[in-house]
Specification:
Layout lengths: L9 H4 L2 H6 L18 H4 L16 H14 L8 H4 L11 H15 L18 H20 L15 H5 L20
Helix pairs in contact: 4-6
Length: about 190
């Protein structure tokens, strides 16, 4: 299979099992793209009294190392459209590659999973896992809710109402799953 010089195969960009197995490296001050972001737990509002808290995300550091490894591999191309940097891009066409990579990390945080939940190890462009298409459809659903449906709710007491993956998933691969009845799926790497 021939790969254009402009679109690198995802497998050539990242070997996440290797990136995830290596110890975290301190980010270079010259590389703002590789800086760590706050964990999902730190960014979430406190649960109401009596609510069952989502399980602690033990994969956040691992995901962040993977995101940083991808960003390092695409350095210099991070502002190009994602489809020019990676293969098999559908939902993120026209989005800068860096923004797409960071969004993938946030998706993992919201679902409490690693990249291997949706992607085939060693071949991230592969379309074999149904979770990859489900994620695309969930993104379309979220867009429809945010762009159309929320605007139709009269007397909504918010200037900019929005939903995201974490609105329902709350750190679990299956939204609405009882965290005490079943542990969240942690599939993949």
């Amino acid at each position: 299979m021939q790969v254009s010089r402009r679109a690198l195969p995802v497998t050539a960009l990242v070997l996440l099992p290797i990136a995830c197995a290596q110890p975290a490296q301190a980010p270079s001050s010259a590389t703002p793209a590789a800086t760590a972001t706050p964990t999902a737990a730190a960014a979430q509002p406190a649960a109401p009294a009596g609510a069952v808290a989502a399980p602690q995300d033990s994969l956040e550091e691992r995901r962040q190392r993977a995101v940083n490894a991808v960003l390092e591999r695409i350095r210099g191309r991070e502002n190009e459209p994602a489809e020019q940097v990676f293969d098999s891009i559908r939902a993120f066409r026209g989005v800068p590659a860096e923004r797409m990579v960071r969004a993938m990390g946030r998706f993992g945080s919201a679902l409490g999973v690693t990249c291997g939940h949706c992607h085939v190890r060693g071949n991230f462009a592969a379309e074999e896992k149904p979770e990859k298409q489900i994620a695309r459809e969930m993104m379309a659903m979220t867009r429809a809710i945010n762009d159309t449906l929320l605007a139709r709710i009269p007397d909504l007491k918010s200037e900019n109402p929005s939903v995201g993956c974490n609105t329902c998933h709350r750190g679990q691969a299956r939204p609405g799953a009882n965290p005490q009845a079943a542990a969240p799926a942690r599939t993949g790497d």
